[in-house]
């Protein structure tokens, strides 16, 4: 597992999503290092310079939680504060239930906690994908999306980052019919630099996917039904660690993938939800779109968690 780290002090571990690497946290690493923390951003399984095993079962949350616990052991830490977005957020919700003794606190961006669904997620995607394009369903067949995305990595990344941002309404992608390629369902992205992403930073992210392709990240989607199977014992559980939740006003996961009232669901199910903050105008990569607001929220949370 490849990690990037900055600073010394109490450990804070950052978990990314798809299509990202640990680099999406580089602005947070700099801020936390300057504030006296040891900030660590691994490339999670299948991403960047970390190993990408072939088996789908190697991408379950249970498997990757093993990586995170091994990382804690490797740095000699009993506990850490964990920060996550997208798949990294879902990973942390499960970490908080599987290994609560290793979690000092959770800071989660955009992807709220919800109790385990009555049926596996693939059941719901198949229903939705009968009516419109849905990327989760498109990603399921091994090799198909892998080839499409690897053929145009920079084009795909620029389009999907823009579509997920607060500068576009992502659910407009659902106006496209089933059966098309994701890259064709996404909007044309504006030229760089963007307001929140300079071309030099995009180049660093794109270079990793040009080198590795996308199969490692796509396997996280293919493992989601397996995650559901492996969490039967947690069907009525919730993380007990202190939770701080920050989200973009225009985040598509909050709008279209998290139920009718995700904030109320969290308030009803999480025993120690300490703070909820909305960032006006931001979308899914809120830590890049609104870096100062997210860094301030993080530092406030850490100030409470590490006293």
TrEMBL record:
The keyword Hydrolase is assigned to this record: yes
Superkingdom as given in the UniProt entry: Bacteria
Q: Which GO terms describe its molecular function?
A: hydrolase activity
Domain AB hydrolase-1 stretches: 11-289
> What UniProt keywords are attached to this protein's entry?
Hydrolase
Q: InterPro entries recorded for this chain?
A: AB_hydrolase_1 (IPR000073), AB_hydrolase_fold (IPR029058), Epox_hydrolase-like (IPR000639)
> What is the name of the protein in this document?
Alpha/beta hydrolase
